[in-house]
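Please, structure for the following, as tokens.
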Amino acid sequence: MSKEASISALSQCAVILSPVLVSLGLLALSLLLALWGERIAVRYLGEARPSAPSHAQFNIRYSLVSNAVVSMIQPMVAGISLTMTRTLGEGRIAFPAGPIGWCLAFVSALLISDLIEYLFHRAQHRFPLLWKMHELHHSAEHFDVTVTYRNFWIEPLIKSACLYPLVGVLLKVPPSVGVAVAIVFALNNNLVHMNVRFAPARYPWALNNPQVHRLHHSRDPADYDRNFGAMFLIWDHMFGTFRQPAQDRFPDVGLDSGEAPRKLFHALLWPWCRGQQRA
């Protein structure tokens, strides 16, 4: 191989690997901050249930591998998202310039994104194909901040291709609003999965919190199909899916079948390996 060909091959590898390495770096930073935040929260609020370090380590390993897979496929999905946005039209609702317009755009994007998340979450529990993927998230037998990252790798691709573009179709918002909404959702997702004894005494019906979301993960059939909200609980109230946990109730989590991936390979191929992973 000539020197020019070698340089060209290395350049192509760099182009392919750069997004993966950047994504992995951001994920590692997010994990470190999430684990640090949960440790501080546990110190002041106490653990809801005993922690399981081996469970957290498995989730971390899986999240790193699945994130690398998603990062390599994401460019193709971006093309689908762009085509969808151009076909349906962009930004039907615009906002005035300036700080007030930015705030209106932020609140609107946050609410619409949260409603889309709620509806898709319900679909994940309703339709078998989606549930087979989402089941990996619910197979976690311990509830802690690392469960935030325990999602089947095809799910974020579906959201990027089919769901998130809907916000762009409806709203014309500046890029900074999109970044701000993404950051708020990331923080919220980490917070609601923390293994902390937190049950807000005031306005428990307004925002999602660890106790409310833990009930969604409960393996008790009486708790199934409740508390789908990602951030705001207003959708659960509107559609009749909200359940307020008892004050000191922090139920066991996981699948009633006891199925859970025991190896990284099983998690990456969960829809095809499920049914063979009983404890």
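Residues 5-11 have pLDDT under 50 and may be disordered. The chain has one domain: 3-273.
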